[in-house]
Amino acid sequence: MTLTSSDRVQAVLAAAASGAAHGTFPVEAFADDSVYQAELDRVFAKSWLFVAHESEIAEPGDYVLRHLGEDEVIVTRDEDGRIHVLYNACRHRGAPVCRGAKGNSSHFRCPYHGWTYRNDGTWASAPRKTLVYKNLDTANWGLLAAPHVAVKWGLVFASPDPAAPSFDDYLGDMAWYLEAVFGLDSRGMIVMGEPERALLEANWKTGAENYCGDALHVAHTHKSLEDLGMSQQLLREQEMYSMFSPGKGHATFAWNLERSGLPIEAPWGYPKQVWDLFDQGELTADQQRFNAERMPLAGLVFPNFGFFRGFSFDPVSQRVMVHTQLRLYQPRGATKTEVLSWLVFHVAEPEEYRTKSYQDGLFVLNAPGILEQDDFTLWNAPSRVGRSRFARDHEMGLNYQAGLPGMSRGGPIEDHPGPGESYDSAFTEGNIRAFQRHWIDQMNAGNVGSADPGRPGEDR
Ligand code: FES
Ligand SMILES: [Fe+2]
């Protein structure tokens, strides 16, 4: 019997839902084209998606090309300073009106028949306008735009869904954790350099899961850091982790660097004279305590935006440099992901520190960095297995059981000052299971009779 694409999606969702109770997930979800098309419709078209950092489009007329799902959009700042997310398709015959990855322009002129749009998306002109379009209702022929755009902590998100919840509702308790990281100084953050891009033969969820909190891979995948003397004891680092699951598919994890044996002067490894420059103006006392005790290391805003505040350690100079990375797992197909990575710095950091930290960051993070090389060689595995006839015939599911009751030591943090569920160890995949349950919910939305994937947090 040949399954229709809708049958295949239903079969994968049923396997995901039944596996959620005992920590398994079907490999087909990392490779099946029908599942991927359903994700574009039910996840990416319904979510708030990261499109840019505000500092990338600092001046009127600045723009960058990005995507909402697979649809290309121009993120612009208009002449009045407002940000727009415009669908890059001419309203005449659909040709792209912008082809540069970034630039500055007051208008976008279509290369096909010359229709021209202002950088706020409104229709501006066309060749021989008075002869050809004497009575064109120009107010109705501007570029289509994302109906919702929000900017918070300099992060620009947009939702293609007219019925989307507010961005605050969408984030829920995740805002508390993002604020702790990106709200460290009220002068904000800026991007340095270009976003780096890497095209992987991997499904977007593999990267997303990694940023939810795949702490168990660190000591093995990244043993190269230990070999180079850049991390003194990776296994001990695993003991330093804690996991936080704020709900709605978002996740974050943290560590206590004081237990690392590294020469740490201030949270995250900032030099004390740099740390003292951060005003922490918007942070509550609880957020300040959280930052001091358990520095948020990385996290994921559902579905595909990640952040990572890590460090590089030079064993010769014994110097620790802190860098913050923004990360987008841009879907390009069921088994293709374009990874975009930005390095961002607090405006308050002295320029000399920023520059040096940026250089060190490139060595560890981003496409050419040590960490990414380690990860990228392995992230194609779920997609490869997901395409396998053998795996399908044997109904192979992947294992996410770490941290289920009776599996590993660790439990909730007694005095955690923040919202959501917590877990005082690296030895859990609970954050990933929470991400998967939210994915199942989103994929099942509108499907009558879908299986109940269980409630977040019930199986940490
Ligand atoms: S397609 Fe753009 S002007 Fe015709
Ligand atoms: Fe990694």
TrEMBL record:
Keywords: 2Fe-2S, Dioxygenase, Iron, Iron-sulfur, Metal-binding, NAD, Oxidoreductase
Region (Disordered): 402-421
InterPro entries from the UniProt entry: ARHD_Rieske_2Fe_2S, Rieske_2Fe-2S, Rieske_2Fe-2S_sf, Ring_hydroxy_dOase_asu_C_dom, Rng_hydr_dOase-A
UniProt GO MF annotations: dioxygenase activity
Domain of life, per lineage: Bacteria
Residues covered by the Rieske domain: 49-122
Protein family (similarity comment): Belongs to the bacterial ring-hydroxylating dioxygenase alpha subunit family.
PANTHER family, per database record: 3-PHENYLPROPIONATE_CINNAMIC ACID DIOXYGENASE SUBUNIT ALPHA, CHOLINE MONOOXYGENASE, CHLOROPLASTIC
Protein name: Aromatic ring-hydroxylating dioxygenase subunit alpha
